[in-house]
Design goal:
single chain; alpha+beta; FAD/NAD(P)-binding domain; D-Amino Acid Oxidase, Chain A, domain 2; Helicase, Ruva Protein, domain 3; ten-stranded mixed sheet; 13 helices; binds flavin-adenine dinucleotide
């Protein structure tokens, strides 16, 4: 239940866009409620390729504006969360059957120059027969290009935005669905259902932003709001990835052009693995149930096998995941060329302000959020200046990441190097919240196995809305890839008790 059933703004959806909007709006002093039907980032925002990138291939569709916006956001995010957004080199091997060399050179020139890139090296051509990056590739490649982009942890980026929103005053309710929106004069009545407890109640808000991703139209349909001039259609496009044991040494990723004009990324993932994706196919049905098909598995294995010396077979796959892109339908025939831009639809026929978000990219969420909040405030005739660009996300107040890690080694000399590295990447400066006061691993409480200690789990439950083992192992982290069944069992057994303890401690603190 919420403490104050009357808000300035209610946001539906706790993916990257909803969480980003909540942060932006709370930072402008609005009273904000965000409702998410599942766990934070339980849908598309945990199933991406995890790149903060301009999207080199969108240049081909003349989407210069989108690429420029994305590259500007890349720069902002590198500064806002240096622990979670890291620069990665991408190798683009070239053979005769692909886009011509002049086109790639031009594309890379634009990519280098469309936005500032102080921290990223410029692109260059390489001889794959001589360069170490060519060693793992098939013999057919002689020439290639290298450029820089960034990799992140998509689901944690969502949580950091929600955390910042909460610290700026927003209320975040997970496992709570919006079941109906009713415009009543100058405000909205919003029906909510706690999907875990089965409770239902109403709240009021002056403004609503519908950021339900693939369900954006579903939310409108449930409330009979699918009218209004020019309301976009959503095009649901499924994309799948496979994870296999690490294929090669080195920190570089590869971007492989396919004969059907798609591209497949091959990316070092979670130290011990390689991520291969993505596919693109139109999707029907409930996006939450999206799963990789046999055709997609074969497509991804074939894409890898055609470009690399080694082979990947379906039997090598450790896990796979699929997500559904909620693209706004621009009428393009194929999904690959459909725009990755976004549309913020203003429901002008309603007296109380409301916006629905169509499309977007992980990379551009901050800008989308800023624009959405500015737009809805304008509709409401209220002031509120944009603020978020120069502000770091929780844990991201770090000037130089290498220096930060050295400082943490000196501060916590008793933490094994690999564990400290993991804490640094996941929590940045926030690791102090569960490490300070401890002087040995024993001080971190029970050890459930594979470097998962009670102190971290308590932090995730108390501050990061983690409820289930899956939230911890697959969204707040990707530890699910690394831990043994015994660790999972230990964690499962401990979680219910820890959650009760956290609740009771918090209740005591609130009562003091
Ligand atoms: C395969 C794939 C790869 C991608 N790779 C990249 C990439 O590398 N880089 C990049 O920039 N972008 C990438 N994207 C795009 C990016 O992931 C999406 O644009 C972004 O995650 C969409 O976020 P969202 O918040 O709009 O939607 P979602 O993350 O789906 O969030 C919507 C949320 O709304 C909730 N919801 C729905 N209905 C209700 C309701 N009634 N009440 C309450 N909550 C509700 C859902 O549970 C869901 O959590 C990729 C997308 C896919 C599919």
């Amino acid at each position: 239940m919420v403490s104050n059933p009357d808000y300035d703004l209610c946001i539906i959806g706790g993916g990257i866009n909803g969480a980003g909007i909540a942060r932006d709006a709370a930072g402008r002093g609005l009273s904000v409620l965000l409702v998410e039907a599942g766990d934070l980032a339980s849908a598309t925002s945990s199933a991406s390729t995890k790149l903060i990138h301009g999207g080199l291939r969108y240049l081909e569709y003349f989407e210069f504006g989108l690429v420029r916006e994305s590259l500007c956001e890349r720069k902002i995010l590198l500064q806002a969360a240096p622990h979670m957004v890291r620069v990665m080199e991408f190798v683009l091997p070239h053979d005769e059957g692909q886009r011509p060399v002049w086109m790639i050179r031009l594309g890379l020139f634009l990519y280098d120059h469309l936005a500032g890139r102080k921290k990223l090296a410029g692109s260059k051509a390489i001889d794959l027969k001589a360069h170490e990056y060519g060693k793992v590739l098939d013999d057919k490649y002689a020439k290639g290009f290298v450029y820089s982009d960034c990799q992140t942890n998509d689901a944690r980026l969502v949580v950091l935005n929600a955390l910042d929103a909460q610290e700026r005053g927003a209320e975040i309710l997970t496992h709570t669905a919006c079941t109906k929106l009713r415009c009543d004069g100058d405000h909205w009545n919003i029906s909510l259902r706690d999907l875990a407890a089965g409770q239902e109640w109403d709240v009021r808000a002056s403004m609503v932003i519908n950021a339900a991703g693939p369900w954006v139209r579903g939310v409108l349909e449930a409330s009979d709001l699918v009218h209004g001039d020019g309301l976009p259609n959503v095009r649901l496009v499924k994309g799948s990835h496979i994870v296999v044991p690490r294929r090669y040494d080195g920190a570089q990723a590869y971007i492989i052009q396919q004969k059907d004009k798609r591209i497949v990324f091959v990316i070092p993932y979670e130290d011990d693995f390689t991520l291969i994706g993505t596919t693109e196919e139109d999707f029907e049905g409930d996006p939450i149930g999206a799963q990789i098909s046999q055709d997609e598995v074969e497509y991804l294995c074939a894409a890898y096998n055609d470009a690399f010396r080694g082979q990947v077979t379906p039997g090598d796959i450790v896990c796979s995941y699929s997500g559904v892109r909620p693209l706004f339908d621009d009428g393009k025939e194929n999904a690959t060329s459909s725009s990755r831009g976004y549309k913020l639809y203003r429901h002008k026929d309603m007296q109380a302000p409301m916006i629905s978000v169509f499309g977007g990219k992980l990379t551009t969420y901050r800008h989308l959020a800023e624009e959405a909040v500015s737009k809805i405030l304008k509709m409401a005739g209220k002031p509120g200046a944009a603020w978020s660009a120069p502000h770091s996300l929780p844990g991201g107040d770090i000037d130089d990441y290498a220096e930060f890690i050295s400082e943490q080694k000196a501060r916590y000399p008793w933490i094994p190097k690999e564990l400290l590295r993991r804490y640094g990447r996941a929590y940045g400066t926030r690791m102090a919240r569960f490490l300070d006061g401890a002087n040995s691993l024993d001080d971190l409480g029970a050890h459930y196995g594979d470097g998962i200690y009670e102190a971290e789990v308590v932090y995730l439950v108390r501050y990061e809305w983690a409820r289930e083992v899956e939230d911890i192992l697959w969204r707040r982290s990707k530890l699910g890839l690394h831990v043994s069944p015994k660790t999972i069992k230990n964690l499962s057994q401990a979680l219910a008790t820890l959650t009760e303890e956290v609740k009771s401690d918090d209740a005591k603190l609130a009562g003091d």
